């Protein structure tokens, strides 16, 4: 397994999936697998939990839903910023037209 980090989450999805598979199949403790892979215990625990959610074994948002939610939040933030800019521009031009 490669420790080549990538993406905003630190590790590529393939690495995270392989780490979860290794933990599940090795019979070793989560702490030991995390240490052997050079990742934090918290990261491996999060990956295992998300894999359980994605498999339907645990309640929560599956990865695709989580990704969609993040995208929608990002889009919402951008739209709010654009709205605020347009409000300021409208107020500026309204003020300018009053002085003419």
Give the topology.
Blueprint (H helix, E strand, L loop, with lengths): L12 H14 L3 H8 L3 H14 L8 H37 L1
Keyword list:
single chain; 100 residues; mainly alpha; elongated; disordered N terminus
Q: What does this protein structure show overall?
A:
The structure is a single chain. By secondary structure, the protein is mostly helical. The chain contains 4 helices and no strands. The protein has helices spanning 13-26, 30-37, 41-54, 63-99. The longest helix is centred in the last third of the chain and has 37 residues, at 63-99. It starts with 12 loop residues before the first helix and ends with a helix. Mean pLDDT is 90; it is low at 1-7.
> In angstroms, what is the radius of gyration?
23 Å
How many DSSP E strands?
Answer: 0
Percent of residues in β-strands: under 5%
Q: Can you write the helix and strand succession as a string?
A: HHHH
Number of helices: 4
Largest sheet: none
Helical percentage: over 70%
Low-confidence stretches at least 5 residues in length (pLDDT < 50)?
A: 1-7
Which class of secondary structure composition applies to the elements? mainly alpha
> Given the C-alpha coordinates, what overall shape results?
elongated
Mean pLDDT level: 90
Q: How many angstroms does the end-to-end distance come to?
A: 69 Å
| Subunit organisation of the chains | single chain
């Amino acid at each position: 397994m490669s420790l080549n980090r990538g993406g905003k989450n630190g590790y590529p999805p393939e690495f995270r999936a392989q780490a979860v598979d290794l933990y599940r199949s090795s019979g070793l403790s989560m702490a030991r697998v995390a240490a052997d892979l050079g990742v934090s215990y918290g990261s491996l625990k999060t990956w295992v939990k998300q894999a359980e959610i994605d498999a339907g074994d645990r309640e929560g948002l599956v990865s695709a839903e989580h990704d969609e939610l993040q995208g929608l939040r990002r889009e919402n933030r951008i739209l709010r910023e654009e709205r605020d800019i347009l409000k300021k521009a409208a107020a500026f031009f309204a003020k300018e037209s009053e002085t003419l």
